[in-house]
Amino acid sequence: MSMATLNKPAWADLHSHSTASDGRLSPSQLLGLAAEKGLALLALTDHDSVAGLAEAGQAANSLGVKLLAGVEISIDFEPGTFHMVGLGFDPGHLGLLAGLDKLRQAREARNPKVLEKLQGLGLDLSWADVQGNAKGGLVGRPHFAQALIQKGFVKTFDEAFDRYLAKGRPAYVPKARLGAQAALDLIHGAEGLAVLAHPIQLGLQGPELRQLIGELHEQGLDAIEVWHPDHGPDDVKVYRDLAHDLSLGSSGGSDYHAIPGKAGELGLPGMSLQAAQELLKGRIS
Ligand code: AMP
Ligand code: ZN
Ligand code: FE
Ligand code: FE
Fold first, then answer.
1. First-last CA distance in the chain
2. Is the whole model's pTM more than 0.90, yes or no?
3. What is the residue-wise DSSP string for 97-157?
4. pLDDT at 7
């Protein structure tokens, strides 16, 4: 049991990653850290995968932390990055698992192309160098970045993205993505809540942002991630007001990956357990 939550407001973090995708901590290590930090509730929201949830659930039970099933899905979108987080669904739902399996196949088709591009640029890198970093989870660009650092081709994670892996850079390969409606249907089909993750990354502001979120609301979006490490105080106000005006829920989480040099600390910025309970409407056991 974690110490010292008595008399203090209980805290929740509704966005985090483990080795099932591109986080560096195993699901049980992540839950261990959540307990250390005194979190009452953690959502594990790996990219395209629910494979970490079973181990996370066992650790959560023994540590006295509540675990919420989650997943983060990349949506086909321009100009920026559009991620949708699903929360509190049934992780055994067959339709959801089938949808995620298609995304896994799309990654498996993309990864050799990224490797070929890097090799074509003269970088001596093997698939084993990359895959070894994934610890059995889904391989993504962060594992390529880690391999580039290990091989001495770049010094930092950001440099790996800026020089090679980011959109528009020479080793970028787009991956097959879902449309927003397809992702909403997958999440809702499994009884989950659909949250627009880190809206700042959409690259939209003002009326354009409002219009997109209004359309998503009509398509069934449930909530906006108001609290995220990429959001400054002014951003938080914009997204909180938008959520309020459009009658959407407000969510928040750290997007913690345990990647050195990548911003973020587990639990920061989280949200109060009470606000999380209101958002999740009975989805916390
Ligand atoms: P993937 O799902 O394989 O396309 O990898 C996406 C992940 O890469 C994101 O969740 C981020 O953790 C990381 N990422 C994407 N773009 C950047 C960037 N420009 N700088 C640093 N990390 C990035
Ligand atoms: Zn990630
Ligand atoms: Fe994301
Ligand atoms: Fe994330």
1. 17
2. yes
3. HHHHHHHHHHHHHHHHHHHHHHHHTT----HHHHHGGGTTS---HHHHHHHHHHTTS-SSH
4. 59
Kindly state the tokens that stand for 195: 């949250």
Q: What percent of the chain has pLDDT over 90?
A: 91
Scored b (16 or more CB within 10 A) or e, 186-222 reads bbbebebbbbbbbbbebebeeeebeebbbebbeeebb
Nearest to 201 by CA among 99, 72, 104: 72
Percent of the chain with pLDDT over 70: 97
Q: Is 230 in the pocket of ligand 1 (CB under 6 A)?
A: no
Q: How many angstroms separate the alpha carbon of residue 161 from the centre of ligand 2?
A: 13
Q: How far is CA 249 from the centre of its chain?
A: 18
Give the CA angle between residues 115, 121, 127 to the nearest 5°: 20
Residue nearest to ligand 1 atom 13, measured at CA: 142
Which of 49, 141, 156 should be mutated for ligand 1, with most atoms under 8 A from CB?
Answer: 141
Distance CA 222, CA 217 (A): 7
Question: Tens of pLDDT along 74-88?
Answer: 999 998 999 999 999
Answer with the residue of higher pLDDT: 270 or 251. Answer: 251
- CA-wise closest residue to 134 among 13, 17, 232: 17
pLDDT in tens, 221-255: 999 999 999 999 999 999 999 999 999 999 999 99
Q: How far is CA 140 from CA 44, 69, 234, 235, in A?
A: 17, 21, 31, 28
User: Mean pLDDT, the chain, as a whole number?
Assistant: 95
For residue 259, which atom of ligand 1 is closest to its CA?
12
